[in-house]
């Protein structure tokens, strides 16, 4: 099953002209269409969960998912056997709000 963190908040037509739709970069948290209104979206306050080194933060296409408790608990882990798995991680913008 596809997780909610793998879907952008705008439709295909809008993604085609969105200035935030940059390959390999998440939707910024300040974009109106990146807001999450799902009942599962809860801002995580536990630093142990927020800073989980095993979580694959690249799987979240929206920055708001990267501090959502639902994603942090149920999201995918980094595949330790994948080539260059850790090097791909873009932690530089992980918590930009």
Automatic annotation (TrEMBL):
Tell me the protein's name: Uncharacterized protein
Biological source species: Adlercreutzia caecimuris
